Amino acid sequence: MAVNRTVLRPFVKWAGGKGQLLTALDWLLPPRFSAYHEPFLGGGAVFFHLRPSAAYLSDQNEELINTYRIVRDQVEELLISLGKHKNERDYYYSIRALDPQDLDRVERASRFIYLNKTCYNGLYRVNKQGRFNVPFGKYKNPRYAEADNLRAASAALQHARVLEVADFSQTLKRAGAGDFVYLDPPYVPVSETARFTSYTADSFGLRDQIRLHHVFTQLDQMGCYVMLSNSDTPTIRELYRGFRCETVKAHRFINSNKHRRGHITEVVVVNYESSGSAQCNRADHRRQGKTHAPRSR
Length: 297
Ligand SMILES: C[S@@+](CC[C@H](N)C(=O)[O-])C[C@H]1O[C@@H](n2cnc3c(N)ncnc32)[C@H](O)[C@@H]1O
What we know:
Strand content: 15-25%
Strand order of the largest sheet: 3-2-1-4-5-7-6
Order of helices and strands: HEHEHHHHHEHEHEHEE
Number of helices: 10
Structural class: alpha/beta
CATH superfamily of the largest domain: Vaccinia Virus protein VP39
Bound molecules: S-adenosylmethionine
Number of strands: 7
């Protein structure tokens, strides 16, 4: 598959975004594949990096997927709407207070990008009623109307055959032998206090991680190239025992204080051989050709 490498950034900030890990992941990607699938799309850092010519993209977040569709289909209308926003505290809260269901699809997408770029830390958080509740971020010059990047994103998204709100398991319906599936779920918590049981009913818990492991093994058996990112925890190492596990170092916020950053180790699980090694953080690594077909287990 031909891959266009013009630089293109995600148009939203997203928790767990893979922007800073692209060099490390690049080294572990299969060098060629048929269609590309990303069912935990988020900010889409890997999709925008690869710019594949056939993609199946999905996420469970409805507001996010509406925004992707508008960027793909109505980017000029979106840019006009984004240009009307103001980086002012009272204005921010008036936009935050709007119910997205009362807006048309372009205004909804425009509100989503505006709030994402002007809210505290680019967080996406909703209350029990599903209403966005992140405070104003006080940024001097938030870039919510980046015309060139949004137009480039729109061009890349023309190759999305599917862009839908869906559970990750739907990937099984669409993927075929020779396709590449990148799985980047909400991570298994690393701290001792953050246990699965402390999650709310609709968050991503241990049961979902086990469901995801089933999907991974089924995709493997179907002959897909599969790559999964997660935290480096005993749970993940145990679940994916038998598959190739590489570690990468990510520079992340380690708690809610934006000044407290730290390096944490993440795991990348793949079901194929490639020329990558555990030292996959080096900036000068290029993808090289030595990748074999996925194993049949
Ligand atoms: C770690 S983020 C993905 C980050 C993305 N790779 C990036 O570079 O920005 C995980 C994503 O999974 C989505 N998600 C959570 N549960 C899901 C589910 N059951 N099925 C599909 N997507 C889900 C969340 O909405 C979130 O966007």
